[in-house]
Amino acid sequence: MVHLKKVAFHPERYPTRECYPFDLAIFRESGPVSFDTRVTFFVGENGTGKSTLLKALARKCRIAIWDGEGRTRFHRNPFENEFHKAIDIIWNSGRVPGSFFASEIFRNFAQLLDEWASADPGLLKYFGGESLMSKSHGQSLLAFFEARYRIRGLYFLDEPETALSPGSQLDLLRILDAAVRAGQAQFIIATHSPILLALPGARILSFDHSTIREAAYIETDHYRIYKDFMADQQKYLREIQGPR
Fold first, then answer.
1. What angle do CA 222, 228, 229 make, to 5 degrees?
2. Percent helix, strand and coil across the chain, each rounded to 5?
Protein backbone atom coordinates (compact mmCIF):
# COMPACT_ATOMS: atom_id res chain seq x y z
CA MET A 1 0.00 0.00 0.00
CA VAL A 2 1.24 3.48 -0.87
CA HIS A 3 0.74 6.55 1.33
CA LEU A 4 0.39 9.24 -1.33
CA LYS A 5 -2.09 8.08 -3.94
CA LYS A 6 -2.47 10.85 -6.53
CA VAL A 7 -1.66 14.43 -7.55
CA ALA A 8 -3.83 16.59 -9.81
CA PHE A 9 -2.88 19.87 -11.51
CA HIS A 10 -5.18 22.89 -11.65
CA PRO A 11 -4.07 25.32 -14.38
CA GLU A 12 -7.04 27.57 -13.60
CA ARG A 13 -5.28 28.41 -10.32
CA TYR A 14 -1.96 29.34 -11.94
CA PRO A 15 -1.13 32.96 -11.08
CA THR A 16 0.76 33.46 -14.36
CA ARG A 17 1.64 31.70 -17.60
CA GLU A 18 4.81 33.75 -18.12
CA CYS A 19 7.11 32.59 -15.30
CA TYR A 20 8.57 29.23 -14.30
CA PRO A 21 7.13 26.79 -13.37
CA PHE A 22 3.72 27.92 -14.59
CA ASP A 23 5.06 28.46 -18.10
CA LEU A 24 5.75 24.74 -18.55
CA ALA A 25 3.27 23.14 -20.92
CA ILE A 26 3.66 19.77 -19.18
CA PHE A 27 1.87 21.13 -16.11
CA ARG A 28 -1.00 22.40 -18.25
CA GLU A 29 -1.38 19.29 -20.42
CA SER A 30 -0.86 16.47 -17.93
CA GLY A 31 -3.83 14.84 -16.23
CA PRO A 32 -3.76 13.47 -12.67
CA VAL A 33 -0.71 11.36 -11.82
CA SER A 34 -1.23 8.23 -9.71
CA PHE A 35 1.40 6.70 -7.45
CA ASP A 36 0.72 2.98 -7.61
CA THR A 37 4.08 1.62 -6.46
CA ARG A 38 6.25 2.05 -3.38
CA VAL A 39 8.91 3.80 -5.48
CA THR A 40 8.25 6.28 -8.27
CA PHE A 41 11.08 7.84 -10.24
CA PHE A 42 10.85 11.18 -12.06
CA VAL A 43 13.22 11.37 -15.05
CA GLY A 44 13.83 14.01 -17.69
CA GLU A 45 16.23 16.65 -18.90
CA ASN A 46 17.12 19.60 -16.70
CA GLY A 47 14.39 22.21 -16.68
CA THR A 48 11.53 19.82 -17.46
CA GLY A 49 9.92 20.30 -14.05
CA LYS A 50 10.64 17.06 -12.20
CA SER A 51 12.40 18.67 -9.21
CA THR A 52 9.83 21.47 -9.15
CA LEU A 53 6.99 18.96 -8.84
CA LEU A 54 8.93 17.01 -6.21
CA LYS A 55 9.26 20.13 -4.02
CA ALA A 56 5.64 21.11 -4.60
CA LEU A 57 4.51 17.66 -3.46
CA ALA A 58 6.65 17.89 -0.32
CA ARG A 59 5.21 21.31 0.54
CA LYS A 60 1.66 20.11 -0.13
CA CYS A 61 2.32 17.15 2.19
CA ARG A 62 3.61 19.59 4.85
CA ILE A 63 7.09 18.07 4.81
CA ALA A 64 9.91 20.48 5.68
CA ILE A 65 12.54 21.47 3.13
CA TRP A 66 15.68 22.54 5.01
CA ASP A 67 16.64 25.40 2.71
CA GLY A 68 18.62 27.35 5.29
CA GLU A 69 19.00 31.11 5.16
CA GLY A 70 18.08 32.86 1.94
CA ARG A 71 20.71 34.72 -0.05
CA THR A 72 20.43 37.88 -2.08
CA ARG A 73 19.83 37.10 -5.74
CA PHE A 74 20.16 39.26 -8.83
CA HIS A 75 16.75 38.13 -10.05
CA ARG A 76 14.20 36.38 -7.90
CA ASN A 77 11.26 34.53 -9.39
CA PRO A 78 8.33 35.22 -7.01
CA PHE A 79 6.46 32.18 -8.35
CA GLU A 80 9.11 29.44 -8.03
CA ASN A 81 7.87 28.21 -4.63
CA GLU A 82 4.14 28.69 -5.28
CA PHE A 83 3.39 25.59 -7.35
CA HIS A 84 2.06 23.60 -4.39
CA LYS A 85 -0.89 26.00 -4.16
CA ALA A 86 -2.09 24.92 -7.62
CA ILE A 87 -2.09 21.15 -7.06
CA ASP A 88 -4.25 18.79 -5.04
CA ILE A 89 -3.19 15.48 -3.53
CA ILE A 90 -5.05 12.39 -2.35
CA TRP A 91 -3.78 10.30 0.54
CA ASN A 92 -4.50 6.59 0.75
CA SER A 93 -5.19 6.31 4.49
CA GLY A 94 -4.39 9.73 5.87
CA ARG A 95 -1.30 11.89 6.06
CA VAL A 96 2.02 10.38 7.15
CA PRO A 97 5.29 12.07 8.16
CA GLY A 98 8.36 12.01 5.95
CA SER A 99 11.32 14.01 4.70
CA PHE A 100 12.69 15.84 1.68
CA PHE A 101 16.30 15.20 0.64
CA ALA A 102 18.46 17.17 -1.75
CA SER A 103 22.25 17.03 -1.64
CA GLU A 104 22.70 20.81 -1.80
CA ILE A 105 20.55 21.42 1.29
CA PHE A 106 21.58 18.36 3.29
CA ARG A 107 24.38 20.30 5.00
CA ASN A 108 21.77 22.63 6.50
CA PHE A 109 20.06 19.64 8.11
CA ALA A 110 23.38 18.17 9.34
CA GLN A 111 24.28 21.49 10.99
CA LEU A 112 20.87 21.71 12.66
CA LEU A 113 21.28 18.14 13.92
CA ASP A 114 24.55 19.13 15.59
CA GLU A 115 22.80 22.04 17.30
CA TRP A 116 20.00 19.76 18.54
CA ALA A 117 22.54 17.17 19.69
CA SER A 118 24.29 19.76 21.87
CA ALA A 119 21.14 19.69 24.03
CA ASP A 120 20.39 15.98 23.52
CA PRO A 121 23.50 13.97 22.54
CA GLY A 122 21.38 10.84 22.35
CA LEU A 123 20.06 12.03 18.99
CA LEU A 124 23.37 11.07 17.37
CA LYS A 125 22.85 7.40 18.25
CA TYR A 126 20.14 7.47 15.62
CA PHE A 127 22.76 8.32 12.97
CA GLY A 128 25.50 5.89 13.94
CA GLY A 129 26.69 7.60 17.12
CA GLU A 130 28.58 10.53 15.63
CA SER A 131 27.96 13.86 13.99
CA LEU A 132 27.09 13.76 10.30
CA MET A 133 29.39 16.77 9.92
CA SER A 134 32.37 14.60 10.97
CA LYS A 135 31.93 12.26 8.00
CA SER A 136 32.63 12.71 4.32
CA HIS A 137 29.64 14.01 2.39
CA GLY A 138 28.91 10.61 0.85
CA GLN A 139 29.29 8.77 4.15
CA SER A 140 26.99 11.21 5.95
CA LEU A 141 24.34 10.75 3.27
CA LEU A 142 24.37 6.97 3.58
CA ALA A 143 24.23 7.21 7.39
CA PHE A 144 21.16 9.44 7.05
CA PHE A 145 19.51 7.12 4.52
CA GLU A 146 20.16 4.03 6.66
CA ALA A 147 18.60 5.64 9.73
CA ARG A 148 15.71 7.59 8.25
CA TYR A 149 14.29 5.12 5.75
CA ARG A 150 13.63 2.44 8.34
CA ILE A 151 10.73 4.56 9.58
CA ARG A 152 7.22 4.48 8.16
CA GLY A 153 6.72 7.55 6.01
CA LEU A 154 6.76 9.35 2.67
CA TYR A 155 10.19 10.29 1.33
CA PHE A 156 11.12 12.70 -1.45
CA LEU A 157 14.65 12.60 -2.89
CA ASP A 158 15.98 15.11 -5.41
CA GLU A 159 18.91 13.66 -7.39
CA PRO A 160 20.46 11.80 -4.42
CA GLU A 161 23.20 10.42 -6.69
CA THR A 162 24.83 13.87 -6.96
CA ALA A 163 27.33 13.24 -4.14
CA LEU A 164 27.46 9.44 -4.35
CA SER A 165 29.99 7.26 -6.13
CA PRO A 166 28.63 4.40 -8.26
CA GLY A 167 29.38 2.04 -5.37
CA SER A 168 27.51 4.26 -2.93
CA GLN A 169 24.59 4.44 -5.37
CA LEU A 170 24.43 0.65 -5.14
CA ASP A 171 24.38 1.01 -1.34
CA LEU A 172 21.43 3.41 -1.65
CA LEU A 173 19.74 0.95 -4.00
CA ARG A 174 20.08 -1.71 -1.30
CA ILE A 175 18.66 0.65 1.34
CA LEU A 176 15.67 1.51 -0.85
CA ASP A 177 15.01 -2.14 -1.64
CA ALA A 178 15.12 -3.06 2.07
CA ALA A 179 12.74 -0.21 2.94
CA VAL A 180 10.29 -1.29 0.25
CA ARG A 181 10.40 -4.90 1.42
CA ALA A 182 9.67 -3.77 4.98
CA GLY A 183 6.47 -2.24 3.62
CA GLN A 184 6.52 0.97 5.64
CA ALA A 185 7.98 3.60 3.30
CA GLN A 186 7.06 5.21 0.00
CA PHE A 187 9.61 7.04 -2.15
CA ILE A 188 9.29 9.61 -4.93
CA ILE A 189 12.69 10.30 -6.45
CA ALA A 190 13.95 12.64 -9.16
CA THR A 191 17.12 11.14 -10.63
CA HIS A 192 19.52 10.88 -13.55
CA SER A 193 21.07 7.65 -12.25
CA PRO A 194 20.58 4.47 -14.32
CA ILE A 195 21.73 2.54 -11.25
CA LEU A 196 18.88 3.81 -9.07
CA LEU A 197 16.37 3.49 -11.89
CA ALA A 198 17.04 -0.26 -11.97
CA LEU A 199 15.27 -0.76 -8.62
CA PRO A 200 12.94 -3.78 -9.07
CA GLY A 201 9.25 -2.95 -9.04
CA ALA A 202 9.72 0.81 -9.33
CA ARG A 203 7.67 2.94 -11.72
CA ILE A 204 9.42 5.48 -13.97
CA LEU A 205 7.63 8.68 -15.04
CA SER A 206 9.21 10.67 -17.87
CA PHE A 207 8.99 14.48 -18.09
CA ASP A 208 10.51 14.58 -21.59
CA HIS A 209 7.19 14.79 -23.44
CA SER A 210 4.20 17.11 -23.60
CA THR A 211 2.63 15.18 -20.73
CA ILE A 212 4.00 13.14 -17.85
CA ARG A 213 4.04 9.53 -19.00
CA GLU A 214 5.32 6.15 -17.88
CA ALA A 215 8.55 4.81 -19.39
CA ALA A 216 10.24 1.42 -19.35
CA TYR A 217 13.76 1.31 -17.92
CA ILE A 218 15.45 0.46 -21.23
CA GLU A 219 13.51 3.25 -22.97
CA THR A 220 15.01 6.00 -20.81
CA ASP A 221 17.81 8.18 -22.15
CA HIS A 222 19.68 7.44 -18.92
CA TYR A 223 19.91 3.75 -19.76
CA ARG A 224 20.38 4.19 -23.51
CA ILE A 225 23.14 6.80 -23.38
CA TYR A 226 25.16 5.00 -20.71
CA LYS A 227 24.78 1.68 -22.51
CA ASP A 228 25.79 3.12 -25.89
CA PHE A 229 28.73 5.01 -24.39
CA MET A 230 30.09 1.91 -22.67
CA ALA A 231 29.71 -0.08 -25.87
CA ASP A 232 31.52 2.45 -28.07
CA GLN A 233 33.29 5.23 -26.17
CA GLN A 234 35.37 6.20 -29.18
CA LYS A 235 32.26 7.10 -31.18
CA TYR A 236 31.16 9.60 -28.54
CA LEU A 237 34.68 10.98 -28.11
CA ARG A 238 34.97 11.59 -31.86
CA GLU A 239 31.67 13.46 -31.80
CA ILE A 240 32.85 15.57 -28.85
CA GLN A 241 36.21 16.39 -30.42
CA GLY A 242 34.72 17.15 -33.83
CA PRO A 243 36.57 17.19 -37.17
CA ARG A 244 40.32 17.80 -37.16
1. 90
2. 45, 15, 40
**Hey, which bits of 83-129 come out as E strands?**
87-91, 98-102
CA 4 to CA 61: how far, in whole Å?
A: 9
Q: Quick count: other Cβ atoms within 10 Å of Cβ 107?
A: 15
- Residue 122 pLDDT: 66
Residue pair 173/199 in contact (Cβ under 8 Å)? The answer is yes
Which pLDDT tens digit goes with each residue over 54-96?
A: 999 999 999 988 765 555 454 566 777 899 999 999 999 999 9
186 pLDDT tier (thresholds 50, 70, 90): very high
The C-alpha atoms of residue 162 and residue 135 are separated, in whole angstroms, by 17
Domains of the chain: 4-64+79-241 (3.40.50.300)
Give the length of the chain.
244
